[in-house]
Amino acid sequence: MEERRRWEDMEMDCLVNIIRRLSLEDLALGVPFVCKGWQRASMEPLCWSILDFRDLDFMPWSDLTKKFTARYAVQRFSFSGFLKFALARSCGFAVELQFPLVFGASFQDLVFASEECPRLKTLVLPNILLADEPLIPQLVGKWKELEKLEMELKPSSFSEMVMQINLNCRRFSGLRMFGSIKKEDVKAIIKYLPKIKHLNLSKSYLQKEELVEIIKGCRELETLSVNNCIGFEADEEEVLRRASAIKNFENEGSKLFDESAYDMDECDPLNVLVI
How close are the terminal C-alpha atoms of the chain, in Å? Predict the structure, then answer.
């Protein structure tokens, strides 16, 4: 039994490769308190290259909040503080950052991340106030290696945002969002993201004419998801024919109009989205 190898005796590279697969909660509250060897391994930036905050509970009464406050002897816990903690551990090597969608993150957190995460490849934006949306383009433009961007609602500065992506993010290949996709939005996608490979506009208001233009203008699409959209029928013959060259085309549940609305022409498109 005395000759059995112990976890703390494992080569640091191997230990880091295992620990980096754990959740942020485990990295912050579990691993560092096992032993000194695990603590050293948990401090390696590689362990903090994937920063996924979406499934963590940042409410004041959550176990995460209580444990972090106790173990790190902080007087007040906040998402901003936890974000700074994680980014400090990543040392600028974070390649994926996914903000919580429901609670905690602010626009200032996004601004801070734009300075501390220069190597991001995947970004999931938090919910952003309308007043802050005009500032999104200049922030996104800082991530030169950005490949994939996800957001809940289409920002008012969408055209400027994709223009900055075109100018600064040479490897960009994937976009996910929903909202009222208008003609000017489609023109911006075709003009600035003509080589995009993965596009997800599910749950949007998207008319057939705009969808067809996207298919025609973005000829390198490998994945196009327009599930549960309002504005075209899922079995629309022209749409299916034009999308036949796309490897993965998803349009389940899409309808010409919302069945709960009496007159599509009198409806605000944003009010008839299928959420």
Answer: 58
Domain ranges of the chain: 179-275
pTM of the model: 0.86
Bridge partners (DSSP) of residue 50 are 96
φ and ψ of 28, to 5 deg: -85, -40
Residue with tokens 């200032």, as numbered in its chain: 108
Q: What are phi and psi of 39, to 5 degrees?
A: -65, -45
| CB-based contact 247:220 (threshold 8 Å) | no
With helix as H, strand as E and coil as C, how does the chain read? Answer: CCCCCCHHHCCHHHHHHHHCCCCHHHHHHCHHHCCHHHHHHHCCHHHHCEEECCCCCCCCCCHHHHHHHHHCCCCCCCHHHHHHHHHHHHCCCCCEEECCCCCCCCHHHHHHHHHHCCCCCEEECCCCCHHHHHHHHHHHCCCCCCCEEEEEECCCCHHHHHHHHHHHCCCCCEEEEECECCHHHHHHHHHHCCCCCEEECCCCECCHHHHHHHHHHCCCCCEEECCCCECCCCCCHHHHHHHHHCCEEECCCCECCCCCCCCHHHCCHHHHCCC
> Which residue type occupies 192?
Y
Q: Output the tens digit of pLDDT for each of the chain's 275 residues.
A: 455 666 566 677 888 888 889 999 999 999 899 888 888 889 999 999 999 999 899 888 999 999 999 999 988 899 999 999 999 999 999 999 999 877 778 899 999 999 999 999 999 999 888 899 999 999 998 999 999 999 989 999 999 999 999 999 999 999 999 999 999 999 999 999 999 999 999 999 999 999 999 999 999 999 999 999 999 999 989 999 999 999 999 999 999 887 765 454 444 544 434 33
